[in-house]
Amino acid sequence: MLRAALATPLRSEDAAGTLIIGTVLTLLSWIVTPFWLIGTLSVPLLVVAAPLALAPALVARGYLLRVIAVGIDAGDGSAYVTDASPEAPPFVRWGRLYRDGLASALLTAAYLLPLVVGLAAVGAAGAFVELGRVDPAPLAESIAGTDPEGLPGVDAAVPPATPAYGIVGAFLAVVSLAYLVAFAYVRPAALAALAAGGRLRDGLRPATVGRTALSGEYAVAWSLAMIALLTGYVLAGPFVPLLVGVAGVFVVRVVVHTLYGLGASHAVEHAESVVTADDGSVSDAESEPPREPKEPAVDPSPGSNAVRPEADPAVQTGRSVPGGTVDPVPEEVGTVDLDSLVEGSGGDSDDGGDRADDRDDRDELSDDDGDDRPGAGTADEFDWGP
């Protein structure tokens, strides 16, 4: 599995172009987004530039989500995950990458929301204590188990609530650390569900995400991904100022997200089937036909505003040409019979006879016209020929 993931960045229709674009997007996300956040704090009006300032980071997120989808497809296409050979997708359909990156960011925020709400509640309680609206003495007494005026081993000058603050702070630190570890383990499973289903709600289904996170293949893939992530960042970190490290960081992220997809490939499919059986309905993945480029209902004519279908990724990266055959031009349009221009050509005898009949008809009409004119038959009469 790790060997297949390490070879993924090289298995691409345009490996060099993908590496360059990914490096540039990673660098821009490190520079543009922090500067925009700092500028927004000083100039709140800059918040309107969020779609543009966050574009590099969102596109990069969308690409990594597409890498997970490629890993899932490669794992489903092989009997064993170790036999899969995923290929790094090219940077095409940028609008879709932007939307997928936004969905990935919203999913991450949704899973971090409980921790943020809990810390905010604790902070609000601490603010009430500092303002004197809440007396912490009963809490300190219940925690210490003795009279707050005579705590053993505590100086009399120390406020009675100080030991309680330390205990509560240590408890919050342990809970926050445990939540972040669980978040780091569950989030890739949620991203895999999002990549497989294509909708944000797919990554928020507890049954699908839970079954994926509890599978053995996902646990192994996640462990390998953490090892690759830490090792890659340690090796690429010193070279970040030389821009080589930025490319290394991008490659490491591609490898890690490929492992996420490979590990969750079979688990996501099984989880979706189980959820479908529990709901008694057809799952979205089974009911939807395979995704294919949508063709316009009416062929776009020159000068019209109809949107043409997007070209294949291989065509966009310049690795191939559009498929299909060109409709031949009808022979009747813009063609000239060269045999008719050459005297004595060996053309069809029937065609020659038809042309001779046409000349005879024209001669007869000319004779009739000549007889009808005044002065016909005089010496000045024009000789129209036999």
UniProtKB/TrEMBL annotation:
Residues 288-297 have a biased composition (Basic and acidic residues). Residues 360-371 have a biased composition (Acidic residues). Residues 273-386 are annotated as: Disordered. Keywords: Membrane, Transmembrane, Transmembrane helix. InterPro entries: DUF4013. The chain crosses the membrane at residues 16-37, 43-64, 102-129, 164-197, 218-236, 242-262. This is DUF4013 domain-containing protein.
